[in-house]
Amino acid sequence: MPEFDLAIRGGTVVTASDTVRADVGVRGGRIVAVAEGIADAARVIDASGLLVLPGGIDSHVHIAQDSGPGIVMADDFASATRAAAAGGNTCVMPFALQPRGASLRGAVDAYRARAEGQCHVDVAIHMIISDPTEAVLGQELPALVADGYTSFKVFMTYDDLVLNDRQLLDVFHVARRQGARVMVHAEGYDAIRYLSERLERAGETRPYGHALSRPEIVEREAAHRAISHAELIDLPIVIVHVSGREATEQIAWAQGRGLKIRAETCPQYLTLTAEDMKGLGQDDPMAGSKYVCSPPTRDVESQEAVWSGIRRGIFDVVSSDHCPFRYDDPQGKLNPRGKTSFRWIPNGIPGIETRLPVFFSEGVSKGRISLNQFAALTATNHAKLYGLYPRKGSIAPGFDADLTLWDPNRRETIRQANLHHGSDYTPWEGFEVTGWPVMTIAGGQVIAEDGRVLSEPGRGRVLDRAVDPAERREA
Ligand code: DUC
Ligand code: ZN
Ligand code: ZN
Q: Which residues are in the Amidohydrolase-related domain (predicted)?
């Protein structure tokens, strides 16, 4: 009987801290050896010329999430995780949304049932809290955290989701006591409403109005408010999908004061701009809606500010914020109300499959970040932030055998025709990249190779997590 189930030989192993030439030995779905000369294996994969990276962890994706009347998300768990696998990911983290007036427990149970048996890669579920009632804060949330749902997101905007300042403080207080991780969508509700109404009155209803209704100042103000509330409670929050210079400056300021503010950005804020929402050069006046996401993309100066923040260590994670809607679909971007105003265009773009190649190409291949920073920002730090470490996120004995074999020299052009998600477009159509995931291995099994997904839905598990007891502090 061979010593290993799988040996990956001859590659360059990259972790958040090291880059070494080594073989990787796998047994029982786990990494059991990283060493020279591993050969006694049931299956040997030749990784010469390739990087061996920790499987991508995308800690911010929306899958099969209820999206309001008449709007349907383009991915179910099978299609989203299939696309994730093809794009070099081995774990994704979607959101169970609590509708107002509903039980949080009920929302989480129903959402988990949607995922069970459907996934190609492992899934760990965050919650979205939209209605922090006494029962939610006093009973449901503590019980759910104890059951393994250790992180949740709160919104500072959207009619159906916004929490006011008192609610934010109450939720932060409970998170501190339970040791839960809080993600904050920082955009100011009232400022957006004020601007949206003015724009509509002035007849500015095109998709580009979305960008005008949510300028950077709106994100800066909310980021500062969230930071202040977190300081008051002494809670380490994550400000997610940071889009530009102004919010980045707030976070840098807070971190400079020693506050435990963590931050996430996404490839769209590094590669796309608000101009895309004008749909220039396309006959279809709604074409810009393909790029409508929140916060909106900004300008080249803001892209550079975010890159600078990444290089300076202000950002912990780069996620996709995959939030897929079909374009040519009355339940998607081209829904009838969306044609009357930007306000009704569903917010979000697909990106689960393109996150790693776009970020590698613009980051590593263009010399902006190191390979080790790439591993940290796309896998290791996600696992550390959200309670999956040291099970996932690195390459060492004891970790799940979740690996991506990466060709750093392969040049590709991103095309919707080659992607696996349920959306009918990609915002990166025609985008040229250098560096490509050629094989995805999850739990020691090859689940994707060269754009073909080899696993069956149900291979991936829904993971429970535990809080670090040191994070649980009386408020
Ligand atoms: N926030 C997200 O995180 N994703 C899509 C839309 C939004 O507002
Ligand atoms: Zn958000
Ligand atoms: Zn999101």
A: 51-446
Q: Is the pTM value of this prediction over 0.85?
A: yes
Give me ligand 3 centre to Cα 372, in Å.
Answer: 25
Q: Which of 58, 187, 239, 321 to mutate to test the pocket of ligand 1 (most atoms within 8 A of CB)?
A: 321
CA angle (33 as vertex; 32, 39 as ends), nearest 5: 110
Q: Is omega for the bond preceding 285 within 30 degrees of 0, making it cis? A: no
Q: Specify the DSSP element, H or E, that contains 5.
A: strand 4-9
Supply the pLDDT for residue 350: 99
Answer whether 175's CB lies under 8 Å from 210's CB.
Answer: no
Average per-residue pLDDT in the chain?
98
Q: To test the ligand 1 pocket, which listed residue (59, 61, 62, 219) has its Cβ within 8 A of the most ligand atoms?
A: 62
User: How do beta strands 41-46 and 30-35 pair?
Assistant: unpaired
Ligand nearest to the CA of 59: 3
Q: Tell me the fold of 4-54+393-463.
A: Urease, subunit C; domain 1 (2.30.40)
CA of 323 to the centre of ligand 1 (A): 7
| 8 A C-beta contact, residue 179 and residue 471 | yes
Atom of ligand 1 nearest to the CA of 241: 3
Residues 6+ apart with CB under 8 A from 178: 141, 142, 145, 146, 467, 472
Ligand 1 center–CA 19 separation, angstroms: 35
Q: Going by CATH, does the domain composed of 56-372 fall within 3.20.20.140?
A: yes
Per-residue pLDDT tens for 152-210?
999 999 999 999 999 999 999 999 999 999 999 999 999 999 999 999 999 999 999 99
**CA contacts within 13 A on the Cβ side of 10:** 8
Each domain of the chain, given as residue ranges in start order, spans: 4-54+393-463, 56-372
Ligand 1 atom closest to Cα of residue 323: 5
Q: How confident is the model at residue 125 (pLDDT cuts 50, 70, 90)?
A: very high
Ligand 3 centroid, distance to 21 Cα (angstroms): 37
Q: Who lines ligand 1 at CB under 6 A?
A: 62, 185, 241, 293-294, 321, 323, 347-348
